[in-house]
Automatic annotation (TrEMBL):
Gene3D superfamilies: 1.10.8.50, MutM-like, N-terminal. InterPro entries: FPG_cat, FPG_N, H2TH_FPG, Ribosomal_uS13-like_H2TH, Znf_DNA_glyclase/AP_lyase, Znf_FPG/IleRS. Its EC number is 3.2.2.23, 4.2.99.18. It comes from Nocardioides thalensis. This is Formamidopyrimidine-DNA glycosylase. Keywords: DNA damage, DNA repair, DNA-binding, Glycosidase, Hydrolase, Lyase, Metal-binding, Multifunctional enzyme, Zinc, Zinc-finger.
């Protein structure tokens, strides 16, 4: 799933490609992806792109006062195309193409964006709005963890308010802190040497400082590594720099212990027992049931 560092890099890449270009047409072969009807998509046709920005994990393409806001969900991605087919895409259950953004012609060809979504669970969302705050998911976002006003005190207040909730869930809840998902919450907690099940309001002052520093450094480093990369390179960059996420069974790069996993109904987390839980493996109910 694209998280804040990848969406920030996508925004940077598209900012350079789209600046001053006109959007001539938007096709939505996966019609369920379109979540708004007013203004209609035709309203943005012919509009010049003024900028590309990010709100949490939402991508925002602004054109002539309108905002084309995109949430890539779990399996979505944006692909730049130097030349798009002349014929509009047709709806197809076999195709991963959800949205196509066609730009004005240059040298007789029309470049643009193909927005795809793999898998059978279709959650990708496209909104055309006059104000990004008209998108419910954007309006309900918590503070961005890389802005200057996200201080240690802000994090302390969030954790205290969340009470006994597990720290992993607090970090990845978009209404609490914007932009951190499953992958980077694993990485942050590994860097902080903290159990994902630790209650949010149980941190000591030293642990709070460690967690705050881990949030800023883990996300900041990821944004810095991703900056300047084309969209086609971002997935590889993310995967190759993970310490524990997605690395079940491999060696922890810090201590050499095996990376372990806890599975849930529709997701999983990875962690190092030596680094994060005092050497004690966390209970994994799904695996326990399989072993019975």
């Amino acid at each position: 799933m694209p998280e804040m560092p990848e969406v920030e890099a996508l925004a940077q890449d598209l900012r350079g490609r789209l600046d001053g270009r006109a959007i001539t047409k938007i096709h939505v072969p996966q019609f369920s992806a379109l979540k708004t009807y007013d203004p209609p998509l035709a309203a943005i046709e012919g509009a010049l792109v003024d900028g590309v920005s990010r709100h949490g994990k939402f991508l925002d393409i602004e054109a002539s006062g309108l905002h084309l806001v995109l949430h890539l969900a779990r399996a979505g991605w944006v692909r730049w195309k130097d030349e798009l087919p002349a014929l509009p895409p047709r709806p197809s259950q076999k195709s991963t193409l959800a949205v196509r953004v066609v730009l004005d012609e240059q040298d007789g060809v029309s470049p643009g964006l193909d927005i795809t979504e793999a898998g059978t669970k279709k959650s990708l969302a496209l909104y055309l709005v006059r104000d990004p705050m008209d998108v419910p998911g954007v309006a309900s976002l918590g503070p961005d963890p890389l802005t200057l006003d996200f201080t240690r005190d802000v994090l302390a207040a969030i954790l205290e308010q969340e009470g006994r909730k597990q720290i992993k869930g607090v970090l990845r809840h978009q209404g609490t802190i914007a932009g951190i998902g499953n992958a980077y919450s694993d990485e942050i907690l590994h860097a902080a040497r903290m159990s994902p099940f630790k209650p949010a309001n149980s941190l000591t002052d030293d642990e709070l400082t460690t967690l705050y520093d881990a949030v800023r450094s883990t996300l900041g480093d990821a944004v810095e590594r991703s900056s300047g990369l084309a969209a086609s390179e971002l997935k590889k960059e993310k995967k190759t720099n993970m310490a524990v996420h997605g690395r079940t069974g491999e060696k922890c790069p810090v201590c050499g212990d095996v990376v372990r996993e806890v599975s849930f109904a529709d997701s999983s987390l990875q962690y190092c027992a030596t680094c994060q839980t005092g050497g004690k493996p966390l209970a994994d109910r799904r695996m326990s049931k399989l072993l019975k």
